Amino acid sequence: xxxxxxxxxxxxxxxxxxxxxxxxxxxxxxxxxxxxxxxxxxxxxxxxxxxxxxxxxxxxxxxxxxxxxxxxxxxxxxxxxxxxxxxxxxxxxxxxxxxxxxxxxxxxxxxxxxxxxxxxxxxxxxxxxxxxxxxxxxxxxxxxxxxxxxxxxxxxxxxxxxxxxxxxxxxxxxxxxxxxxxxxxxxxxxxxxxxxxxxxxxxxxxxxxxxxxxxxxxxxxxxxxxxxxxxxxxxxxxxxxxxx
Length: 244
Description:
244 residues, two-stranded parallel ribbon
């Protein structure tokens, strides 16, 4: 976990995490555990990670998820975290969601973000600073069966996602005792870089134009974060973020 700016513990923050990857391993390890020392890097900040509400319907699993700071991915849960007057709360949203997982493969820099603006509207309504996050290496943990748009596999995955709410990427990596095939992720590092907060003016009912302006600013800051740090993590110079 790498920080580029300090966060004021008297303030709440809304963070956009990119990319989703296959299993969002970087998001879970950094914000739901102390594996990367979050509390030392950001003292006074309590992290919360949003997860599909489907998983909170399963007894016992729900309690385990909540113990790690995970919250249901609905507007009411997000507002509850962001409106706490004492501050010190961070809400991380994996903006691309389950659909973005279908494009997760080594070397991919494609983000499902072009028309995802709900998190921006939420930040404006609460006057909460937006913080872009890019997790280098997230897409390198697994290989995925080729599923280009227009293929029967992609169509089937999309239909299943519409029905169940979760995507089903066909992925593989290594085994426990061998490296040729299995479901254990490859031993590849993840470097999660937390960007600088983007100030947001509070407005209860922002117009579409106001949301678009903040969204564009967020895209620019995310691109800037990626370009400034990609060389450190072996990303080719000619590779750039692609928004779909």
